[in-house]
Amino acid sequence: MASAASLCPAGAARQAATRDPDDLKAWLQLASAPGVGPATARLLLAAFGLPQQVLAQSVAALSSVVPKKHARAVLARPGAGLPALVERTLAWLGTPGNHVVTLADDAYPARLFDLPDPPPLLYIKGDPALLSRPAVAIVGARGATEQGKRDALAFGRALSESGLAVISGLALGVDAAAHAGGLLGSGGTVAVTGTGPDRVYPAENLALAHDVAARGAIVTEFPLGMPGMPANFPRRNRIIAALARGVLVVEAAARSGSLITARLAADLGREVFAVPGSIHAPLSKGCHVLIRQGAKLVECMEDVLEEINLGPGPMIGPMPVPAGAPARSAAATPTPAAQPGSELSDFADRSDPLLAALGYDPVTLDALCERSGQPPETAAARLLELELAGHAERLPGNLFRRLG
Question: Where is this region: Disordered (predicted)?
Fold first, then answer.
């Protein structure tokens, strides 16, 4: 694995997280040069040292390392917005808890050097040290079932209580539940986002983001003002995979971003874990694909810990909502409305609280009433309608489960 020191020539001093305007301007200029991505920036830094030294070279010198079009882009006159971005970033750094960590900083997480394109800069709200703590990523569907969210919350809490940081992407569903669980243990949680550090996407997770920044860390490679553009999230996923020792997929459709994160993790030599589910559940199909491809089937936390050599820990058991969980935990994992591209089955009506609460694992009527907030007589009548429509079935012992 490459080290941070290898990015600078021999004898070049490594610096603390930068607040010097000229230094910050050079980093931002290099990172924002048109057509010059993190992989090209890494090559230039390894060859010439810090960004100010890169920018002092000639086109011919840079062209000995990267294609000439990239060399010209790096040395072109900076865009008109660069001075304003520098000022905004310096002002952002003036807020306690905000950090910019560069490839040349000691605080830069070493595991990101396993990537061919580690981000030149990381914007961090919270504790930068958490990014270097042993960690497991928990990812899954945005439109997760209630059971899936409870599983993610319980695994997140158990892993955090074992001392591992819990990494996820601050999305709705599984991500939000995993972060909420990670906040309940000593390991903490790290949210890797696809926006600038001054934005939260989706807005429903604003309260959760404040909690993560206060007691964990939010990290992004995107500059201030960057909105949540679709192309940003695959880039975010590679950072999630690289920071973790393993990736646990709780629920995922057969084609989902969570499977991309799992593939990236496998390519980096990380462990891949998947929680199995009903063969009828659309959001179990992605996990079953991973298991067939060699991912470890996970039923309890020991299944994770024995693969990453951290020893045994407390059993998760039947995945109840952890006792003492803060009231905000439920709010941090809202049930999203159906929207184009969401990972929901075709028949799912997310405006129906009972259908949203009914998972693919058997559940009692009392539990459904508690989840959905409906009285027993209303829930029983709606369950009968779902049975007749082929969306649910009644099992022995007065248990119910959803059908795909």
Answer: 322-344
